[in-house]
Every structure is written in structure tokens, then in C-alpha cells.
């Protein structure tokens, strides 16, 4: 899908449908009242002057009308809100999302093996069922908002908030950080990939595997560059570098154990399989990866990623190709 949808007006799940109705009904009621008031105003300005009884107007248009309209809207929205999916961590699939300046860490726990998958900036969910997202932040307050799937929910350091997402239609839905969180708030996007149960299971199985070994000398050179540049100080490639084993310990408690060890950069074990890099900033391919590694500050000023200044051109190309092949 080329244009990921990010609109309240194009809901893709039951909760978003209800929120979309709120938007339309509130807009419709507001528009109707606005037009009525403007029409009365026009009549008052252009019509023949007629004596009016001010008390009748104040009682009718000033008190009774707003009271009836606002009470009706309140009653309707309260009734409709009660039909939203409850925010329960007891959903059959629970995913942990930690917001960081300025990206998203996403963790899955495989029920069968108990192993954990750590990825970034992309949440895969199966269609047709409610999925619980346990949300927290490791630095400042962020907010997760995928308008096509549900409303927004703040992500607060030291607390776990919950949001249930439920997609009925397979597709890619764009989301955005909805709480100002610093210099790169605008480039803190994420994508929810909703796919069939089989596609989701296959995706999770692939993500559980360690990084693909380089299949030729060029890619091996890229992997060596990753090690030599000490990219592993912030990034993990499972089976190559990074804090192996620690992830399992931190994630034992699942959603409750969200506030795990500090992790500075995204896990790159399967970075090539993700749609975007730098939290929705660029599509993933070797060209954008090379540009990002060479000068991340030109693309996303203030991001925690330093430039790989002493990397020669050939090694940079090899490193970008190696990361791209980590599907
Ligand atoms: Cu994170 Cu705005």
C-alpha cells in the first residue's frame, strides 16, 4: 500500500468507527447551530425591525435550546462510548510499546516459546481481533495515535497505559506521536501493519529468528563495519552484536516489565523487513540507510544517532547493503 491512511474519517476498525461517528455528529450539530444562528442574525439585520420580547429569547434560545442540544449530545456520546472495546490487558495478544525520543520500541512475547521479539516503529497485528498495546515512555511524555484504529493515548514515563487496537481490514495505517516531545516530535511516526492471521504468524516466526548471515563477501564487509564502528553500543543485531540475553530478562514480566534496560537505538536484527527507518522518516532501502548512517543529523537534527564520520565509501555501501538484507 503506497499511501498509508492516517485519518479519523477513514476508520478501519470498530473503535475507530465509533470515534469517526463522534467527529461527524459533533461537526454536524455544530454546523447546524452555526447556520441557524447566522440565519437569525441575517434576518435581524436585514428584516424590518420588529419588537421582540427579550425574556422569551433568553429563556428559549439562551437556556432551553443549549440545554436540550448539549444534553442530547452528552447522552448519545456516553451511550456510544460504552460500546468501545474495553482497555484490557487480557486480550489474546499483548504488545509492549515504549516511546523514546524520537522513535518507538515494540516488543512481542511468543506464547509458545516464551521468547521475545524486539522491533521498532512498526506494529504488526492480525486483523479481526482486539490487540492490547501496553504503552510507556523511557524519557518524556509522548502519545500514540493511529487515527484509523483508535483514539490517542498518552505514554508516560514510569507508568503503563493501555490502548486496544482492532483492525477489520488488512492494510498499513500510519500513526503519529500526538504529544509535543521535543525537536523531532514531527518525525516520530509509526505504522501499524494489519495482516491476516497466517501472515502475522509467519511474520512473528521470521522475527524470532536471529539475523541472516551475510551471503557474500560484500555483505560480510558490511557486518564487519557494523562491528568496527561499534554500532552495537546502541543497536542490537541478534547473533552479531549487542546485549544478548538481557532482552529476555527485562521482558519476563511482559507488559508489566516494560520499563526494561535502557536501549539507546532500535534493534536492527530484521531492520530490512521494516517499511521505514528513523520512525517513518525514510523508506527502507540501501540508499536511505547509507544516507542516514553517513549524516543522520542532516535528516533528523537532534536525533541521538551520531554520524559515522570515519567510514570509507565502500564500507558505508557494504554496511547499508548488509542492513538492507536483514529481512
Ligand atoms: Cu514523541 Cu511527540
Automatic annotation (TrEMBL):
CDD domains: CuRO_CcO_Caa3_II. PROSITE patterns: COX2, COX2_CUA, CYTC. Residues 90-206 form the Cytochrome oxidase subunit II copper A binding domain. GO terms for biological process: ATP synthesis coupled electron transport. The chain crosses the membrane at residues 22-45, 57-79. InterPro entries: CcO_II, CcO_II-like_C, Copper_CuA, Cupredoxin, CuRO_CcO_Caa3_II, Cyt_c-like_dom, Cyt_c-like_dom_sf. One of its GO terms (molecular function) is cytochrome-c oxidase activity. It is found in: Membrane; Periplasm. Belongs to the cytochrome c oxidase subunit 2 family. PANTHER family: CYTOCHROME C OXIDASE SUBUNIT 2, CYTOCHROME C OXIDASE, SUBUNIT II. This is Cytochrome C oxidase subunit II.
Amino acid at each position: 500500500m503506497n499511501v498509508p491512511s492516517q485519518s479519523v474519517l477513514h476508520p478501519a476498525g470498530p473503535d475507530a468507527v465509533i470515534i469517526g461517528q463522534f467527529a461527524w455528529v459533533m461537526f454536524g450539530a455544530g454546523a447546524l447551530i452555526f447556520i441557524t444562528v447566522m440565519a437569525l442574525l441575517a434576518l435581524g439585520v436585514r428584516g424590518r425591525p420588529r419588537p421582540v420580547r427579550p425574556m422569551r429569547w433568553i429563556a428559549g434560545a439562551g437556556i432551553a435550546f443549549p440545554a436540550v442540544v448539549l444534553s442530547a449530545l452528552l447522552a448519545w456520546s456516553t451511550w456510544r462510548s460504552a460500546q468501545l472495546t474495553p482497555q484490557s490487558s487480557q486480550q489474546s495478544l499483548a504488545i509492549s510499546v515504549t516511546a523514546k525520543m524520537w522513535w518507538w520500541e515494540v516488543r512481542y512475547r511468543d506464547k509458545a516459546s516464551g521468547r521475545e521479539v524486539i522491533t521498532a516503529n512498526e506494529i504488526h497485528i492480525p486483523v479481526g481481533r482486539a490487540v492490547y498495546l501496553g504503552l510507556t515512555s523511557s524519557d518524556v511524555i509522548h502519545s500514540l495515535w493511529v487515527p484509523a484504529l483508535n483514539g490517542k493515548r498518552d505514554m508516560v514515563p514510569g507508568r503503563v497505559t493501555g490502548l486496544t487496537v482492532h483492525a477489520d481490514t488488512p492494510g498499513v495505517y500510519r500513526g503519529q506521536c500526538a504529544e509535543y516531545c521535543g525537536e523531532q516530535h514531527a518525525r516520530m511516526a509509526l505504522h501499524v501493519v494489519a495482516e491476516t492471521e497466517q501472515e502475522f504468524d509467519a511474520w512473528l516466526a521470521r522475527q524470532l529468528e536471529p539475523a541472516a548471515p551475510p551471503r557474500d563477501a560484500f555483505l560480510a564487509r558490511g557486518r564487519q563495519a557494523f562491528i568496527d564502528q561499534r554500532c552495537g553500543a546502541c543497536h542490537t543485531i541478534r547473533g552479531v552484536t549487542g546485549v544478548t540475553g538481557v532482552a529476555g530478562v527485562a521482558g519476563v514480566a511482559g507488559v508489566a516489565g516494560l520499563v526494561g534496560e535502557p536501549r539507546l537505538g532500535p534493534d536492527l536484527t530484521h531492520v530490512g523487513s521494516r517499511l521505514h527507518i528513523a520512525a517513518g522518516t525514510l523508506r527502507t532501502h540501501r540508499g536511505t540507510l547509507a544516507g542516514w548512517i553517513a549524516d543522520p543529523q542532516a535528516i533528523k537534527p537532534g536525533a541521538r544517532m551520531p554520524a559515522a564520520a570515519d567510514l570509507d565509501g565502500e564500507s558505508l555501501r557494504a554496511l547499508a547493503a548488509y542492513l538492507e538484507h536483514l529481512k
